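Forwarding the complex inputs:
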Amino acid sequence: MAMSVRVRLGSQFRNIMRVCFHENRHMSTAEIVVEKSENPKEPERISLEEQQRLNDIAKNERMEKLLNMRFAYQEFLPDPNPKNRNTLKERLERRDMLARRSNVEIPEFYVGSLVAVMHSDPHAPGKNNRFMGICIQKIGAGLRASFILRNFIDGEGVEINFDMYDPTIQRIDVIRLEKRLDEELFYLRDAPPEYSTFPVDMEPEYQPEGSAVPVNEIKVPLKPLPWLVKWERMGMKGIRDVTSMLTEKRLRMSKLKQFNKPWEKYDLLKMYSETIPIEDQVEIFSEIQEKLHELEQHRYKMKRSRNFVKPTKMG
Amino acid sequence: MNLPMLCMQSRGLSTSSALSQVIRLTRLRVVDNSEIGKQAMAEGKPPYVFHVYNKMGVGYIGDRVMVAIKGEKKKGILVGLKQNQKKKVPKFDTNNLVLIEDNGSPIGTRIHVPIPHILRTLMKEKTHSKGADYTKLIAIASRFI
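Prediction (whole assembly, two chains):
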C-alpha cells in the first residue's frame, strides 16, 4: 500500500524531482522562483476558488522554502539506502545534531569552498590545532557526516578528514563560500600544486546576505600521466581537455558506453533509490526548521553585539 | 571489440583503488637534509623498504623501517603517509621518511615538510629509557600540522 502511494506521488512529482535532486542536488542554492501571493485586503470579496488558489500558492512557497534547505543542511537527510533506514535512529541523530549546533556554529559550505577548522588536539603543544584548505569532499549522513580539506603546505600536499559533528571541533570558519563544477574534487591530487595552494592566514571574504552562492567555473589542468584515477572516464566537468595526453587505446576506452552510462538519466528506479522522497524531506525539514531558525537568530544577535568596539583614547 | 578486453570487462579486473600501503619494496621520499638522502633523491633513486619493524609487515605512521639507500642499509621513521588515515590525522601526497641512526637520533638536521602532530605522542611512546631516543626527530621538524 505504502509502496503504491510513493510510486504514484513519484510519477506526479517526476519533473520536479528530476530538477530538484538529479541535476542540481548539490549545485544550486538559488531560490526557485514561485508566483508570489498578493496580499488580499478584503478577504470576504474574493471567491472560494480564488481563495483556494492563493492557499495553494502560499503552501507551495512554504514547500519550496523547506525543500531548499536540502543544500545547506544536506547531512540532515538520511542515507537513502533502504537497508540503512531506521526512523528512530534518524530522529535521535537529528536531535543530537541540533544539540551540537547549539554549541558550535556549523556554517553552510560546499565542495570547493575554503574552510578553516579549529579543533582541540591532545598531541599539539597548545592543545589546539587549526587547518585551512579547500573542501574536496562532503559525504555522509547524520552524525557521520564528514568533509575533507586539502592544502599545499611547504610544498607538500596535505589532506585532513574531519567529522562535521566532532565534539573536539571548536570553530569552523568559511574563508570563501563558493562551489565548483563537480561534487568531488579529488582530481586536485593530480593537478599542479598551485590549484590547491591557499595561504593559511587568509582573511575571510564576506558576501552580501541572501545572495546566491557563486559557482567557480575554473577548469583545472592535470599533470602528465600517470594519474591516481583514470580521470578521462569519470566525466568530470572541472578538468581541462586531456585528450592530447592519452594514448589512442585509453581514448577509445574512455568513450565506451559502460563508462559514460548514457542510460542512467532514464533510470527512474536508480534516481528513486538514491534520493529521499519529497514527503520525507518535508517532514524532516519542518521538524528541524524552527530550531535552526532560532539558532540563526541568536547567532545574528550575538554577532551584532560583538561587533561593537569600544573607542580607545588616542594620544 | 577484441576478446581480451571483453574478458577483462566481464571479469571486472583491476577495479579497486590502491591501498597505498608501505610494504617491502615501497619507494619512499627522504624529507630531511641528510647528505645521503639528498643525493639519493637528486639522483632519482629513492630508497626502498626491505623491512618493517612490526608484526604486520605494513608500515604505519611513526613506524620504523629499514631501507636500502645508495647501496647502504639505513633505518628510518615514516613521518607521513599517502594511505588514508584516521579522522583528523593528515594524509600526505607522498610517503615521507626521516633517516635515523641506530640510537634513534636523526642523521639530518632539518625536516623540510610538515609533520603530523600525532607523531609527537607516537614517538614519545616508542622511546624507552636505556633504549633508542626518537624524540630528537620531533625537535628538528620545521612545521607541524
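Residues 1-35 of chain A have pLDDT under 50 and may be disordered.
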